[in-house]
Amino acid sequence: MTVEAHKETRGFQTEAKQLLHLMIHSLYSNREIFLRELVSNASDAADKLRFKAVSDDSLYEGDSDLKIRIGFDKDAKTITVTDNGIGMNREEVIENLGTIAKSGTAAFLEQLSGDQKKDSQLIGQFGVGFYSAFIVADKVVVTTRKAGTPANEAVRWECSGEADFTIENTEQAERGTSIELHLKDDALEFADHWRLRSIIKKYSDHISLPIVMQKPASTDDSDEKTPEDETINTATALWTRSRSEITDEEYKEFYKHISHDFEDPVSWSHNRVEGKLDYTSLLYLPARAPFDLYNRDAARGLKLYVQRTFIMDDAEQFLPLYLRFIKGVVDSNDLSLNVSREILQKDPNIDNMRTALTKRALDMLNKLAKNEPEQYASFWKEFGQVLKEGPAEDHANKDKIAKLLRFSTTHTDKPEQDQSLDDYISRMQDGQDKIYYIAAENFNTAKNSPHLEVFRKKGIEVLLLCDRVDEWLMSHLMDYDGKQLQDVGKGELDLGKLDSEDEKKEQEKVAEELKPLLERVKAALSDKVEDVRLTHRLTESPACVVVPEHEMGAQMRRILEAAGQKLPESKAIFELNPEHPLVQKLNGETSDERFNDLASVLFDQANLAEGAHLEDPAAYVQRLNKLLLELSH
Ligand code: ADP
Ligand code: MG
Fold first, then answer.
1. What is the pTM of this model?
2. In angstroms, what is the C-alpha Rg of the chain?
3. What is the pLDDT of residue 391?
4. Exposed (0-12), middle (13-18) or buried (19+): which is 86, by Cβ within 10 Å?
5. 86 lines ligand 1 (CB under 6 A)
């Protein structure tokens, strides 16, 4: 057999170059992780081969004993990581080792600040993978042959620097990939049996296939014996072991292996289910949101195994969308080895597993919230917005999810979302039977809304909502713990038992007196308002606008309109504060022109205070200036 070499030199993609440079220079303090990354890739390659061989076992080429071999040569200053996994063909080598095709790379690079310290933390989140070889090596040679291809179609990839790499065809009898690291002078310490062994133990013990090394040659007279191999790791799938035998460190390393994340997970939940269904799951809560969390097409889901055989990444059928940040594995003993995504979608057993796994994930969050509130707070910052999608998607777990929600409220008046509905309920006043909230475009608009005046005066707490999903969330939540959730900007204000009988009598009397005023205002603003009425929700402001009880909230409306949706026109209800001097002035106004101007100005101001845009701002300014000029006369 002859080999046509087709040697060519190729430049790295600009982004890859930039990232490569950064990684190599910012990970200096933890150089040993290069081995973890290479072993992790070798293990993935074995998983992929096993999976393909389920339907075509000729791919094993007579050797189904999959393993990873680590070797080193002190004199040649090299370390070699070899696997007999799936291997790569020429295109795959170029695709996988010449570009950084991870989703979000561009977004990631945009976030870099140029500040070494900050950037190295960011890199940590991104994960370095194969390129971590260059932390310790100044030259890397990859020789690989894809399972099922002829020996002379192997590929040799070589790279000694940040600019370019060469690729050529070569011959290799064994299937799989061998990675040869030519160590930098300052990294020679790694070409050592005990050092390599301890790194494998530390980071790769959980890898389910054997990682073998040659036993070190002993110094006594056993020269002629051929060196023996030794398996360094435990080499059983971590999730099959019992919880009590697995250390936290092992759980964490396993997480990094399956998630390709660089940071420790916040917590995990490992369970075996036996009975009608038989499966094991290991779910992890990551510390940080990926860059593509809000990209609905981004990969999500669990790694699926069937009887210890890897089947697929990103099996999304096992968790709902609002828990898409959860990582982990599920290993089923019931599914068939050639299960496909289509089959998963139809299998009713998958629904049962999904229900159970959803419950596990929510329980894990609940436990974190209870036992480690600080950790939970940082979880909320990263993923709270996603969890807020929950009540709409998963009605059955609405109450469980609601318990996990965190809000800003008038109790703290801070933008931090750190108060739960239970916190709110514990502070409710005697006679209060509703949970009040206000939704606005941003925190300050919510916090300073005139709608809150009476609540502040009476010391009643109100949730301050300003995230885009909030009104959507509230419209699905409806109630919590038997208490209705009430938008204070919607419908007639009814404080129920929170208003005293005397207050109510007084309000009725005033309403009777001011009837003519309301009729007059209604006539003046007839094309803009649905109705005009008196209000007792204001103490400082002269007026406010309210959304009719059964209509969409103002904030939701703005979002939908901004997204280009055509909505039926809705007129607001205009409410006047009878105690306010401007309203009293309006009541005594005899000039129709001035009455109309003042009424219009009050109406426009009420809209401005809500964060709304005026239809005719210039007219507002003119009227206001006219009134100001009269003041100075
Ligand atoms: P990741 O493992 O997160 O996908 P890496 O940078 O570690 O990213 O690896 C890039 C890609 O290179 C892998 O996805 C895989 O396709 C390929 N690859 C790396 N090492 C091997 C190997 N030993 N055998 C087969 N393919 C490999
Ligand atoms: Mg990898």
1. 0.81
2. 33
3. 96
4. buried
5. yes
Measure 327 CA to ligand 2 centroid, in angstroms.
16
Q: Considering only CA atoms, which residue is closest to atom 5 of ligand 1?
A: 129
Determine the Cα angle at 87 with ends 81 and 88, to 5°.
Answer: 120
Residue 92 to residue 618: CA distance in whole angstroms: 63
Do β-strands 279-285 and 327-332 pair in parallel, antiparallel, or remain unpaired? Answer: antiparallel
How far is it, in rounded angstroms, from Cα 161 to Cα 144? 20
Mean pLDDT, the chain, integer: 89
Q: Ligand 1 pocket check: which of 81, 130, 134, 180 to mutate, most ligand atoms within 8 Å of Cβ?
A: 130
Q: Which long-range contacts (CB under 8 A, 24 or more apart) does 506-509 make?
A: 507/534, 507/536
Question: What is the identity of the amino acid at 351?
Answer: D
Q: Which range is most confident: 100-114, 229-243, 492-506?
A: 229-243
For 183-239, write each residue's pLDDT tens digit.
Answer: 999 999 999 999 999 999 988 988 999 999 998 876 665 556 677 999 999 889 999
Q: In this structure, which residue's CA is closest to atom 1 in ligand 1?
A: 129
Atom 10 of ligand 1: nearest residue by CA position: 96
Structure tokens at 240: 């099959």
Map out the domains of the chain with their CATH numbers. 8-217 (3.30.565.10), 265-380 (3.30.230.80), 388-497 (3.40.50.11260), 501-632 (1.20.120.790)
